[in-house]
Design brief:
The chain is of the alpha/beta class. The protein has 12 helices and 11 strands. Strand 6 (206-208), helix 8 and strand 7 form a beta-alpha-beta unit.
Length: 333
């Protein structure tokens, strides 16, 4: 397949940034060796823009909202509506993720011409500086096919990105994925499914569930046991809840129940002895799955007050702190 100029430029930029940051890399002392059993990874979205930093609002204004006072989320970020191109913000986020003991940040990627692709090099550099591995969440962008991804994936492998989580992988025939996976070497592709047989039919190396509406953690032991029998890496996804009403109008909601939902999903992943625990999500504010700090600004926004018995300023980081606890428990199980 022909490699686009956009991809080539992104690969060169990413490789240069990762190389320049290698000598000053700060190892994450809280995390055990990554890349196998005991790994914790978190989904991260670099798609937010502001007028000040980028010339226009992106994502915060979704569904007719008017930032900075109104944002497309049921919660209001403690940092305020920020830009994912603001180096100081991304650096702070990567440090926060590493401090939780998470080893891998899975960056949302919408193809070579996307805003997310242009931001990937700096996100990768800042993640590596604090000892984080970088993986890609390959989103269902227009024109995505297994064959169209082959050169993209091979290009990213050259930069040290070796894990690829393919969202909505079940939209494409198993045989097409199997052909791609047969040709690839040196990386791992994860299918977005709770059906190990489906992932195996597509030739994937593993599976992840992502959806915290469909899955509540109770099925993780069964899914992982079946995955292991088929030689697959099991990476079920845990999350605090779901509420996308303000951003998309989606009426489906899974209330956080003051942290009980998040705890239940983590317990399921630990019971399953998951090879990788994936967290949905660090900052998907639209769907209300974020664990990033939120502040209480009153109606119409919810807050984390009440989560784990915390209120006020202490509650802003409730899910960050709880994640730290669960990561430690997972790694000492």
């Amino acid at each position: 397949m022909r490699r686009t100029l956009g991809l080539l430029a992104a690969v060169i930029a990413t490789a240069a940034l990762l190389s320049s940051g290698a000598s000053s890399r700060l190892v994450n002392p809280a995390a055990p060796d990554a890349g196998g059993v005991g790994e914790v990874a978190i989904f991260y979205y670099p798609w937010y823009s502001t007028e000040r930093d980028d010339g226009q609002w992106q994502h915060w204004q979704q569904n007719g909202h008017s930032p900075p006072t109104q944002v497309a989320s049921g919660w209001f970020p403690a940092r305020g509506p920020y830009s994912s191109s603001d180096v100081s913000v991304v650096r702070a986020q990567m440090r926060e993720i590493a401090a939780m003991g998470v080893q891998t940040v899975i960056v949302s990627w919408w193809g070579t011409q996307s805003t997310e692709a242009t931001r990937l090099p700096i996100v990768s550099q800042l993640a590596r500086q604090v000892g984080l591995r970088v993986a890609l969440h390959v989103e269902p962008f227009k024109g995505r096919t297994p064959s169209s991804l082959e050169d993209d994936i091979n290009g990213f492998l050259a930069t040290g990105i070796t894990d690829f989580y393919v969202y909505d992988s079940t939209l494409t025939a198993d045989a097409d994925w199997a052909e791609l996976n047969e040709r690839l070497s040196g990386g791992r592709l994860f299918a977005n499914t709770g059906k190990p047989g489906k992932a195996r039919a597509g030739g994937f190396d593993g599976l992840y569930t992502y959806d915290v509406l469909l899955h509540d953690g109770s099925s993780f032991p069964r899914i992982c046991a079946s995955a292991r029998r088929l030689g697959l890496v099991c990476a079920p996804s845990v999350g605090p809840g779901f509420d996308a009403v303000r951003a998309t109008g989606d009426a489906r909601v899974r209330e956080r129940a003051h942290g009980r939902v998040y705890d239940r999903m983590w317990r399921g992943a630990v019971r399953a002895d998951a090879d990788v625990v994936t967290i949905t999500s660090y900052n998907e504010w639209h769907e209300g799955t974020q664990i990033e700090a939120a502040r209480n600004v009153g109606q119409p926004y919810a807050s984390y007050d009440g989560a784990y018995g915390l209120t006020g300023r202490a509650a802003q980081r409730a899910y960050i702190d709880r994640t730290t606890m669960w990561v430690k428990r997972y790694n000492t199980r």
